[in-house]
Amino acid sequence: MSRTTARGMQKENLAAKWLATQGLELIERNVRYRCGEIDLVMDDGEALVFVEVRYRARADFGGAAASVTAAKQARMLRAIRAYVAAHPGSERRNLRADVVAVSAGDRIEWIKNAVEATT
């Protein structure tokens, strides 16, 4: 496993644990489809939440949150649609796509509804 992959997994673990302290329940992690990947799938009681975890050690070029480009958002939406298609009943839930941006010092910024997640 590369150092970058290990760091990514560490930040996803950090985000999952932090979101759990905010009342969300982890359902799945690292769900992969040909069209994209979902880092974390969580339940907040009211919605099925798809979370993209981004990490940047430096704030150059806007930091972690700014790294969620339009192309990344499109891949996220395709992966969310694939997830919903593969999990009957999930289409009846409220869906939300959030971003958890982790910066130096493991500072967390939670951006709810970062991407419009309608099916």
What does this protein structure show overall?
There is one protein chain. The protein is α+β, with helices and mostly antiparallel strands and 119 residues long. It contains 3 helices and 5 strands. A hairpin with a 2-residue loop joins strand 1 and strand 2 (36-43).
Label this structure with key terms.
119 residues; Trna Endonuclease, Chain: A, domain 1; alpha+beta; single chain; 39% strand; globular; 34% helix
Quick synopsis:
By secondary structure, the protein is α+β, with helices and mostly antiparallel strands.
Produce the secondary structure layout.
Elements lengths: L2 H19 L3 E9 L2 E8 L3 E10 L6 H4 L3 H17 L7 E10 L3 E9 L4
Parallel strand pairs: 3-4
Antiparallel strand pairs: 1-2, 2-3, 4-5
Which structural class best describes the helix and strand composition? alpha+beta
Supply the CATH architecture. Answer: 3-Layer(aba) Sandwich
**Strand ordering within the main sheet:** 1-2-3-4-5
Helix content: 25-40%
Taken together, the total number of domains comes to: 1
Average pLDDT, all residues: 86
What is the strand content?
Answer: 35-45%
Number of extended strands? 5
Order of helices and strands: HEEEHHEE
- In DSSP terms (H or I, runs of 4 or more residues), the helix count works out at 3
What fold name stands as the CATH topology? Trna Endonuclease, Chain: A, domain 1
The level 1 CATH classification is Alpha Beta
Low-confidence stretches: none
Distance between the termini: 35 Å
Q: Roughly how many Å is the radius of gyration?
A: 14 Å
